[in-house]
Specification:
about 450 residues, alpha/beta, Alpha-D-Glucose-1,6-Bisphosphate, Chain A, domain 3, 5-stranded mixed beta sheet, 15 helices, magnesium, magnesium ion binding
């Protein structure tokens, strides 16, 4: 059994994520860092206090000192871990449904645990070979409020005041306790929706995909705002609308920052996940930099391996000069600063600086036990049907078929949910639609055949 996916441990409460697992993981983390100091925080899900309490019990039983940061966003936990701890643990299922929860582990420098570290934790959990503390070694839990200090650190890094009008959607998640106040401290005129924490997520689904937040476009036009910012359940993800109410594709946001960093550095390496698009390559290469694609869930590893000046996945941006973790709050601050410095609305900046490509993403439901066979079946069909057009095949986090005309098809299994993700991008809408029909239909059929074969 594998505990960790592409973003920590995540799954349905009681089926995968339980208080027993949280306690044992606490014991494993306490053993791994040998009784030092661990920062712990949680998101606003209904089960998070329960899981955090179990995790803390496990940590304490290993002689670990615990810093309780309470209910805060994941980026603030990463920053606080770097400031105060030898390790950190966040109780969150990020953008997953309210029925789910999860656990994410951080090193003392704020990086998420690397793959090899997660494997070592899994081995400890399954073996039960924990470091048990004597009664005299058991330490305490110290409650620390890091929100104000974290806001101050972001403000110092961004170093900008604004008078832009910003609409914020917190998804009833943990970002709601921080983002409106950060924006206000920057001088922005802030309006908020879904900005009270509620683990049932009554306002909308926590994942900031366009279909979940499309209503923000109309709100932007009605309210006459300069920018719309939406977050997910633990506020590491960020989605953006411009002043016209247009949703800004997540690859466009990445391309905008990648271009900015490469121009500032006069070159450099940008690492992005396997499911990102060609507009990033276009702007980075034109600015004198290079793009390296890496597996999902490993931007921190890419920064370390390639000395990257910037790293990103869709909706998740890492600013290494601030810290080696995904940070939507730094992203929103720097985006506002960019708009003010350009002296132009966001729609104009994008029109002038970022090329247009056409991308479609859609998921196919697939139980975890059928993913491998379905992936293999779909790969054989797609390789055969696209063979003459294929320029390169990348086999990280699934497989990506890069085509000679600049189009690409990505099929990958979700590391956190029972789904297979299909992503297609092309230089024209017609080509995109043609490729997506083929890829999505192929994956759906492959899943059906894999499930039928298993039943047979």
């Amino acid at each position: 059994m594998k505990l960790f996916g592409t973003a920590g441990i995540r799954g349905t409460l009681w089926e995968k994520v339980t208080p027993e697992l949280a306690m044992n993981l606490g014991k494993a983390v306490g053993t791994y860092i040998n009784g030092k100091t661990v920062a712990v925080a949680r998101d606003g899900r209904t089960s998070s206090v329960m899981l955090q309490s179990a995790l803390i019990s496990g940590l304490l039983s290993m002689g670990t000192e615990v810093l309780d940061f309470g209910l805060i966003p994941t980026p603030a936990l990463a920053w606080g871990t770097q400031e105060y701890g030898d390790g950190g643990v966040m109780i969150t299922a990020s953008h997953n449904p309210p029925t789910d929860n999860g656990i994410k582990v951080f090193n003392g420098d704020g990086t998420e645990f690397y793959v090899e570290q997660e494997e070592e934790l899994e081995e400890l959990v399954f073996s039960g070979n924990f470091r048990k503390a004597a009664w005299s070694e058991i330490k305490t839990v110290k409650a620390i409020d890091v929100i104000d200090d974290y806001i101050g650190a972001v403000l110092d890094f961004v170093n900008h005041e604004t008078n832009l009008k910003v609409l914020y959607d917190g998804a009833n998640g943990a970002g709601s306790v921080l983002a409106p106040y950060l924006l206000r401290e920057m001088g922005a005129k802030v309006m908020s929706v879904n900005a009270h924490v509620d683990g049932h997520f009554p306002g909308r689904k926590p994942e900031p995909r366009y279909e979940n937040i499309a209503y923000l476009g109309e709100l932007a036009r009605e309210l006459g705002v300069d920018l719309v910012i939406a977050q997910d359940g633990d506020a590491d993800r960020i989605a953006v609308f411009d002043e016209r109410g247009n949703y800004i594709n997540e690859d466009t946001v990445i391309a905008l920052f990648a271009k900015l960093y490469v121009e500032e550095h006069g070159g450099g390496t940008v690492v992005v996940s396997i499911d990102t698009g060609s507009r990033i390559d276009h702007v980075v290469e034109n600015a004198g930099g290079r793009v390296v694609r890496i597996p999902l869930g490993q931007p921190h590893d890419g920064i370390k391996r390639y000395g990257a000046i910037f790293a990103a996945e869709p909706w998740k941006l890492v600013h290494p000069r601030f810290g080696p973790w995904i940070d939507s709050f730094v992203t929103m601050g720097l985006l506002i600063k960019l708009m003010d410095e350009r002296g132009k609305p966001l729609s104009q900046i994008i029109r002038e600086e970022i090329p247009t490509y056409y991308l479609t993403k859609k998921n196919v439901k697939c139980p975890d036990e059928h993913k491998r066979e379905a992936m293999e079946r779909a790969y054989r069909v797609l390789e055969e049907k696209l063979g003459a057009d294929v320029k390169e095949i990348l086999t990280i986090s699934g497989y990506r078929l890069q085509l000679k005309d600049g189009s690409w098809v990505l099929v990958r299994p979700s590391g956190t949910e029972p789904k297979i993700r299909v992503v297609v991008e092309a230089p024209s809408e017609r080509r995109r639609d043609e490729l997506f029909k083929l890829a999505y239909g192929t994956v759906r059929k492959a899943v059906e055949e894999a499930m039928k074969n298993k039943r047979g």
